[in-house]
Hints:
The complex is a heterodimer. By secondary structure, chain A is mostly helical. In chain A, 51% of the residues lie in helices and 2% in strands.
Amino acid sequence: MKKILVHAVLLSLFFTNAAFADDDPSMDPALREKAQRAVDGGLHYLRINQADDGSWSDSVGITALGLRAFLQSHRDYGERDGAFITRPIEFLLAHINDDGSISETNQNRNYNTAVSLTALAATGNDEYDDVIHDGQNFLRRLQIDENDGYESDHAYYGGIGYGGDERPDLSNIHMALEGLRATSTDPDDPVWEKALRFVSRSQNRSESNDQEWAANDGGFTYMPGYSPHKGTASYGGMTAAGLLSLLFAGADQDDPRVQAAYDWIRNNYTLEENPGATDGVQGLYYYYNVFAKSLSAYGGSVLVDHSGSEHNWRNDIAAKLIGLQNEDGSWVNPESPRWWEGNPHLVTAWSVIALNATLN
Amino acid sequence: MTFLDMRWMRSELPAAFVKLALAGVLIAVFRLALPIAEVPARAELLATVYSTGTIVALLLIAPLHNASLRTVLGWCAAVATVLLLFVILDPTTRIVATKIPSLVLVVFLLSVTLGILARRLPPAIVIGVFALLALLPVWAGPMLELANNPPWANRLVMYASPLTAFAAALDFDYLRTVWFYEYSAIAAMRYDYPNFLNILLLLCVVPAATVIRPYTKRNSIFQHTSEAHS
């Protein structure tokens, strides 16, 4: 009996290891050093391309991402380090609107406000608490619910969109949830439960998605019933965003939706392309960014793909981004400018944030 | 002639009802034909699509190249009335109430502009160009994407599309609505809508140029008003 028990324990340990294989949380030391140098190169590029007012590309969103790249880097930059940190903060604060949003345009108020909240939270300065509080309320008001005439059985319910219209999508809501989570919103806030409904309705998992189109690969599409790549097919960028959204909204690792998303990532593991996307190149850096953040939030460093091969995702992402970095320290998507990936300020900020996620 | 003059009412009232009914039917057709009918969408979306559709329909139904200013104003009043009815009857569209004047102003200026152009060019060409410009964000999108979205070209597309006028009036991002997001590459690029005042100024160019030109009998769009006032 004792022998059977020992075998059972050993067997369960084997399977646990095979599935999660998270016994090695660290990066390869030589690669870590190279990744830190790549981060330094990216930050140098951002610094010399910063406008006098502290912004990048005259955009609140890109400025907030650039600021976050600095604040969360291994250099541990903060406001004490000078104008290259304080000016972008001032730029964000200069674009606060009466409704609490932080944006220079009506079109991207959710993205801009959400990434601004994340960046302001990263400063650790409580002087921005009121700004953050107003921004949180703005994001909450953007969420589609009964107040907008939508009942809980509607596919849009609980979603958040760009802010200039009302169409919600998974990309926007994952940014909003990241901003809300970074600013420590009440875990009992109804915003999370509503968000979970929308996020679940974007997943190809018919057990938890009541939409007719839902398939069962566990991946995510852009919004209920639509993918910009093909039909309602799952793809890498959105599946990583979906996994991150589930975790931000309060689902844990044991949640079957989380497991299904993680399994999709394991089954489609690649950094050569954005799996499932048009030509594999559209939204590639968005994929790297959210892929790194989602796996970091999920935990563990090693995952096992469908063929049984183990991957230290931290090493893989770092090596990939180091290989793609331009000589001037920047990154840009030369094959597809769609979703602003032709903008080196944005793509560099995303890449540094991804590297920060692998290093932290 | 006073407002209560029976002769005026006898001559104008049937025409007003016809305009109202047609505007109502058009808006109903748009509402039923588009998938937004299944979504309790914000009034901005409805109004944008409806107003745009209405103005195109105005061109198709009313021979604007022969229309008087009074006729155009009558159509605008009909559009305003139908939008107002929507606001009254549909609670989800109430937020658009304050925007009806801006919308109707855009409808009016576009109608006058197109009417003037239709007098100098074959109306079919004017209608065709209008439709092409309305869908500019769709067919020019891939070219913009290929050229990495140069800001000047992006601004040109945004200014040239008549839909921008409605979007600016409503402060509504129509390019991110489901259909345009699917079919217009611009929705995935960086863009901004022009200021509403700039749009109004742009829409005033053709009417203003016509007004400041020496008055001729060919200016039939203003002729009836002039006669009515004399």
